[in-house]
Amino acid sequence: xxxxxxxxxxxxxxxxxxxxxxxxxxxxxxxxxxxxxxxxxxxxxxxxxxxxxxxxxxxxxxxxxxxxxxxxxxxxxxxxxxxxxxxxxxxxxxxxxxxxxxxxxxxxxxxxxxxxxxxxxxxxxxxxxxxxxxxxxxxxxxxxxxxxxxxxxxxxxxxxxxxxxxxxxxxxxxxxxxxxxxxxxxxxxxxxxxxxxxxxxxxxxxxxxxxxxxxxxxxxxxxxxxxxxxxxxxxxxxxxxxxxxxxxxxxxxxxxxxxxxxxxxxxxxxxxxxxxx
Length: 277
Fold this sequence. Notes:
By secondary structure, the chain is an alpha+beta fold. It has one domain (about 30-50, about 75-275): phage-related protein like domain (phage-related protein like fold), CATH 3.90.1690. The protein has 7 helices and 13 strands. The strands form 3 sheets. Strands 5, 6, 7, 8, 9, 10 and 13 form a 7-stranded mixed β-sheet that branches. Strands 1-11-12-4 form a 4-stranded mixed β-sheet. The relative contact order is 0.23.
């Protein structure tokens, strides 16, 4: 006796599709909002920004009857080169637009924007090698590591305001496990385990943000702490779309691109916290 099964009757069973295209969970991006922006200097032209820096001077003792000594240090500059040109290009063939009921072009535009802005964020994260101080967090970051970061910034006379840290998920997990930051009996506030935001907002005057767009070199993750003026970003061309019809491919060519440069201006105000990957 033969049975009618889902295999034999497969042609009669409808397949359903959702009304909306689901997107991946994109990485959180913070660096561009936390660093010093110098966009306006290259908005019209140019491929380099020169940033002069005044050196420090020390007062001298004045002796009676002797002339003063005149100081004249040789001043320095920081160069910010506009040498990053990132893009994502796609061709959406007309047959796709005709045959789908989804807003395909819109979905891909969002993907293009995310890819280019993530590349910009990652270029800022990749400046870790220019940090003035490295703190080894080992397998688990703890309060002693955070105190070392704060001390490095304090010793460099970094202002207490506008300090930030961008850390990966593992470091954020370590910090959530430090009782003095999180528990009610230490802070007098609802603990992170039951608090709705479940995030560390600030540790030792450093606002903490979690992003998995920090650099992972397969040995360490590079979690960055810095003053706003330590790192600069100059966007000469913000993410911009260019589109045209393609007769050859019978579709629409779409490119999103951006032009920018990044630089470390104050390495002493920049700390790389390295944690095992």
